[in-house]
Design goal:
With 416 residues, the protein is α/β, with parallel strands linked by helices. It has 2 domains: 12-47 and 291-405, Aspartate Aminotransferase, domain 1 (Alpha-Beta Complex), CATH 3.90.1150; 70-289, Type I PLP-dependent aspartate aminotransferase-like (Major domain) (Aspartate Aminotransferase, domain 2), CATH 3.40.640.10. Helix content is 39%, strand content 12%. The strands form 3 sheets. A 7-stranded mixed beta sheet has the order 2-8-7-6-5-3-4, sandwiched between helices. Helix 5 (79-93) packs parallel to helix 11, helix 6 packs across helix 7 (135-143) and helix 6 packs across helix 10. The longest helix has 21 residues, at 291-311. The protein is globular and about 60 Å long.
Amino acid sequence: MQTPAFPPPLNARLQSMDRYQAKAISLAASNDPALLNLSVCEPAFGPPDACLDGIEREDLSLAAFLDGAKRQEDSRGNPALRQAIADWYARRYGLAVDPEREILVTHGGIEAMTLAVLATTEAGDRVALSDPALARYAQAVEVLGRRGERIARSLGGDEFAAAAALPDGVRALIVNSPENPTGYVASATDWTVLGHEAAARRCWVIHDERYDTMAFERPHRPAALEPALAPNAVLVNSLSKKFGLPGLRVGWLAAPAALIEQAAKAHDYLYLGVNPQYQRIAIRLLDRRHDSWLDDMAGMMAERAWIARQTLTEELGFQWPRQPLGGMFLFPEVSRLYRSMPASYRTPGYSIGEAVARYLQESRGVATLPGAVYGERGAASLRLALCGSQQVFEAALDRLRSIRSQRWHGPWERAA
């Protein structure tokens, strides 16, 4: 067959987009053993010890493997897992969800988010995102041919309520609570105001609640608990972060039956069912006996957040205009550190967060994520992940304390 003179065209939209920046930075940092990595969200904890024996003896047995590998699972998810998810909402939040009609098991939270946007909007529709917000939202919206609309939030108080005036024509609003990267947790007032706004505009609210068990300063409330949002709330959740198993890739959508019906079609067309063996493990994890373990992990995140805020003071160049209320991350503002660090790092064309992240990585051996990854309003901040090992957490804080001395002598030090 004759070779064509030039290759056929590829997807222009994808070609115009960069690789997911946060993942690229985290992978690069992971490949340098001299770095203490606070950029990556790979929990050192989990799963609960009480699960391990059953996972080893039953879920990872040859019989379980063959059962999962030799058949295709119900595309909506194992009925026992959907019941476990419904039980999760009932016991933790008093929220009734029909396991037959209102739950779809997905390949992680990312697929759940993609299906939520796909099912609630058409190509060209406007989808509202807060600023800052997880970069994956904007990228998923763009890949699907929708238009992302950034909504700036003020600091402190009821942040979503203060920014609830949605642009005209918005078909869906994505809310992350507890939030990556800021640690903000939506208040009861937030949900009430958003409920009225969304109802008035006939707008879907997609609530990414993957860090739901890690709300430590303000209680977590699924959007569907708000009466005005019950008909138009979509809950996105997963097991990855809360149970420390990001490679398990089991998530779900919980939403009104009509939406689940359409999302299930797309799930069938694009993905098919989730690994049956992993769904067995998911059922085990969601058992109520592990709720106290989840509470302990939330307590650990709260303690680390407090220690980090006490250590990373204004004297060192870290400011905390927004106090973290939950989740696995800190998002300090670092303009003061930017002004005090060596001039060679203040490179034109780099945001404050990008310059400071480079300085901390090259001079202190601590990898962080620049806040510009999450939107313009995060450009003067850094994201620090709290979910690594205790050893890495403590050692990273020790290195960051050394900013005061302006020098740190170590094998990772590079020329400015």
